[in-house]
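Usage example:
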Amino acid sequence: MSRKTHVTTTVNGDAAEFLTDPHATLLDALRDDLRLTGAKEGCGSGDCGACSVMVDGRLVCACLMLAVEAEGKRIETIEGMAQEGELHPLQTQFLRHAALQCGFCTPGILVAAKALLEANPNPTEVEARFWLAGNLCRCTGYDKIIRAVMDAAADMRQERRAS
Amino acid sequence: MADLNYVAPTTAEAAVKALLAGGGMARVLAGGTDLLVQMRSGRLTPETIVDVKAVAGAQGIRQEAGGFVIGAATSGAVIGEHAALSMAWPGLVEATNLIGSTQVQGRASLAGNLCNASPAADSVPAMIAARAICVVVGPNGTREVAVEAICVGPGKTSLAAGEFILEFRLPARPARSGDAYLRSIPRTEMDIAVVGCGVNLTLDTDGTCAEAHVALGAVAPTALLVEAAGAALVGRKLDQEALDRLDAAARAACRPIDDKRGTVEYRTRIAGVLARRAVAIAWQRAGA
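Running the assembly step on the lines above writes:
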């Protein structure tokens, strides 16, 4: 066995540390060491986006990053999306539109969609579809997902104007 | 599972040392979007991983001597957000941003796209057309290598033991210059080029072509600089005869494989079509 490495990081605003094998991916560490099982392993090759997380403000596939690379990094996962029990506008609209069936892709899509709306608060439908092209869903046919994202974007723009 | 040693040096010298110490079983890690997939599939079983992202100069974009220097491990997302680079080299930036998904763009780098040595890598024809130079660091110091001299076949590079690419240098941009990259894929996104074509040209004050470089991807074991295709444009206006000669030169350079993604005949024909279209875009950008 390889020697374990101690990794110190921040996950959803809280300090987190774990011991990891150099072979392990960030996804392995999140799920198996930190017990944050929201990010899913769909393909393990960066094609499906089910393991989408933010690392230092960038959307990445947690399966395409080694756990040891997380040293000193700021990580955000689906577990940090609802704030103090209050759902994020994207989560609310996903429920309203029933934009999920089996739900396996949903955490990754929510994390990716949140990154989209932070970069571009007023995306066109085409922009939203291209941004989310790396998130596969085998149930919904995407239409309800895109409608939920567009409605959440409108909600968030409204909120911003009101505040 | 075999032992795996991970190191993240902060100097080029330390990275070279770690690569040499690992012998043939060391691999460079930049964004990891190819390396991790190949390790998982068992195609690669490295014993040492040298993460070069913390090496000074490996990340970031700076302007120098009228041109740009791009750290070899800079992510596609960072490249796409750089306004001055996107203004000067829109074709190269667009080609880079075609690699994979938004998630992959958060990590994938130019050096990784090049050194993975796929004939279909999207950024490579654009970099070749741009006449980009790789700054290669190794046990004997630093050497500068043209991008087209790095890949020698699918999955194989000309880099010697202990060598890695630290940065890419793009030449100063004369006035009236434009570049473009187009690829053919059966889908609209998230696919590998069946054919790719990068074009970079500069016009004279009277609108004739002063200099042109054309590169093709996915039509040979490596991306190709097609000198005859560039020469077909030099001294000419954008007329039918120049485009016909360009098309013929692009097709003549093709030595593609025949597979489920494209036949030899299809790839060859499309190479000429993409060359025409990419030249039209680059020309329009140069004139703007």
